[in-house]
């Protein structure tokens, strides 16, 4: 089958397109024919080898962390899915494999795609939508009436987080360049800050909660601008010690303690709860997000589609950090 893969970590040139054997499902696995996959910044980070401490991959490693398609084969013991059904998944982190004609997946990561939802929307919402939902509901425990700051509102995670936070009844402020503001207001943002010309700490009241995907200085300023007793989560900085146990790698906790000491110290000083969050695969939550799309309550913006043969170009565009919404790969 055609697949986009790497044989070693490195610069964009290590990304290859070629023929690899199609997967056969083992016990508790199934295979679907890919109709759409989506691009996430984690794809180029994996290519660079940035995540090796937490997750390394046997080579060749097929890139692509979320995908949608039609079930073609079930492994022994798989129930609840049948050949011909339309499905989507944030794929197993330990394996990925979305940028290929056929994709191996685990049923607990899969959701059926409701009528009215396209393969492209289903693939595009998986990783980014689950990240937004888990951060808002499991980490920040956002409540109606609270003031939340969502950074990078025009990005894959941000534009979904704005809508989900708005749906929870929160008052949403977001950062994005000025050209995106009208669109983000339509999605439910009440206040849009152009991060290129304005400092949110000067023009906004302190927040109850912050979803940060930028890390670094932006995260530190966000913590300093959260009310005492508030909550901050980052998906863009460096992992905090909890991530080591979440990943079943407790020996990494001291390393994560060291590399996350700046935001943790800032949070302690401010009286704010802070942690880094690594999203997890979750078929049941994905089904809920797909249902919201079917009902028109969640809109996924797809900026551009690329054929599988141009997946490397899509990865380069993602790496530019200027994508609005999502990029989708087609077989
Ligand atoms: N830990 C996890 O589980 C997890 C999960 C998902 C994502 N992430 C990470 O979260 C980050 C965002 O992911 P994504 O998929 O949303 O990325 P993305 O779609 O590539 O984000 C692109 C957007 O970022 C905006 N942006 C760039 N610099 C900005 C700044 N200084 N302030 C505000 N907005 C800025 C751009 O907006 P403008 O065009 O308006 O400039 C662009 O629309 C990535 O680093 C990704 O790896 C982590």
Number of strands: 16
Distance between the termini: 10 Å
Poorly predicted runs are: none
The ordered string of helix (H) and strand (E) elements is: EEEHEEEEEHEHEHEHEHEHHHEHEHE
The CATH architecture of the largest domain can be named as 3-Layer(aba) Sandwich
Strand content range = 25-35%
Characterise the protein shown here.
- With 331 residues, the protein is an alpha/beta fold.
- The protein has two domains: 2-112 and 301-330, Alpha-Beta Complex (Quinone Oxidoreductase, Chain A, domain 1); 128-276, NAD(P)-binding Rossmann-like Domain (Rossmann fold, 3-Layer(aba) Sandwich).
- It is built from eleven helices and 16 strands.
- It has helices spanning 41-48, 119-139, 156-167, 181-187, 200-203, 216-224, 241-246, 253-259, 261-270, 283-294, 311-319; strands at residues 2-6, 16-19, 30-39, 61-62, 66-74, 86-90, 102-105, 110-112, 147-150, 171-175, 189-193, 207-212, 226-234, 273-276, 302-307, 326-330.
- Strands 3, 5, 6, 7, 8, 15 and 16 form a seven-stranded mixed sheet that branches.
- It is globular, with a radius of gyration of 19 Å.
- The model has no long low-confidence stretch (mean pLDDT 97).
- The protein binds NADP nicotinamide-adenine-dinucleotide phosphate (NAP).
């Amino acid at each position: 089958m055609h697949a986009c893969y790497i044989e070693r970590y490195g610069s964009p040139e290590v990304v290859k397109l070629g023929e690899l054997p199609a997967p056969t499902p083992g016990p508790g696995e199934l295979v679907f024919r890919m109709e759409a996959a989506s691009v996430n910044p984690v794809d180029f980070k994996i290519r660079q080898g940035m995540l090796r401490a937490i997750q390394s991959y046997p080579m060749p490693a097929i890139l692509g962390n979320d995908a949608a398609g039609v079930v073609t084969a079930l492994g022994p013991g798989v129930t609840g899915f049948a050949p011909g059904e339309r499905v989507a998944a944030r794929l197993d982190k330990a394996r990925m494999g979305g940028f290929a004609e056929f994709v191996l997946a685990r049923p607990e990561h899969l959701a059926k795609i409701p009528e009215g939802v396209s393969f492209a929307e289903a693939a595009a919402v998986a990783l980014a939508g689950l990240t937004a939902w888990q951060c808002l509901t499991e980490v920040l425990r956002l409540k109606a009436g609270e003031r939340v700051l969502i950074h990078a509102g025009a990005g894959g995670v941000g534009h979904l987080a704005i809508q989900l936070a708005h749906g929870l009844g929160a008052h949403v402020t977001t950062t994005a360049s000025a050209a995106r503001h009208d669109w983000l207001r339509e999605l439910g943002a009440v206040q849009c800050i152009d991060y290129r010309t304005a400092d949110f700490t000067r023009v906004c009241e302190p927040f109850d909660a912050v979803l940060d995907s930028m890390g670094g200085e932006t995260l530190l300023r966000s913590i300093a601008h959260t009310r005492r007793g508030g909550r901050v989560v980052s998906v863009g900085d460096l992992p905090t010690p909890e991530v080591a146990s979440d990943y079943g790698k407790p020996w990494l906790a001291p390393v994560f303690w060291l590399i996350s000491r700046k935001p943790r110290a800032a949070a302690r000083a401010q009286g704010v709860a802070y942690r880094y969050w690594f999203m997890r695969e979750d078929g049941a939550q994905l089904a809920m997000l797909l249902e919201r799309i079917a009902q028109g309550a969640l809109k996924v913006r797809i900026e551009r589609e690329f054929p599988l043969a141009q997946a490397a170009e899509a990865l380069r565009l993602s790496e530019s950090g200027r994508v609005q919404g999502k990029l989708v790969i087609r077989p």
